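May I ask for a single protein's sequence together with how it folds?
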Amino acid sequence: MIWHLIALFARMSLLAVGGVNSTVPEIAREVVTVRHWVTPEQFAQLFAISNAAPGPNVMIATVIGARMAGVFGGLVATLAIILPSGVMVILASKLWDRYRETRWRGIIQRALLPISAGLLISAAVVLVRQADTGWVTIVVTALCTALAWRSRIHPLWLMAGGVVVGLVML
């Protein structure tokens, strides 16, 4: 199990464009559909726990690793998702600074924004599908998305509203 966790999260580390949340669809596919480690509902719960906990968004690897192989599995999965991309970022940043004034650097920066946004939107779609409990989930998700996009309401208030709706619907 430990080697499977290392292989999965080291690969996800190198695919994370704009943060680990951009790899959530692929992590979900791997742990739910391919490996059958968790059910879709369990994955949605693990994702919620990882985002509710203080700390970086790499906590999804930690909670999946801990679920599959205990505390050591959580530690291994965390290191596997941090180290490969961390080393790559250190090496790339040296080149990035060296070529600060070049035209291609600006092109790459502008290209990464829509790629990151698309990956995050696909992560949201996967999570909504995995947590889908009917039309109420879809309505709450759409409403929270619209409010987050068009208003200045703090996301914690939107999450609190989702919790209240969830409690009422139980």
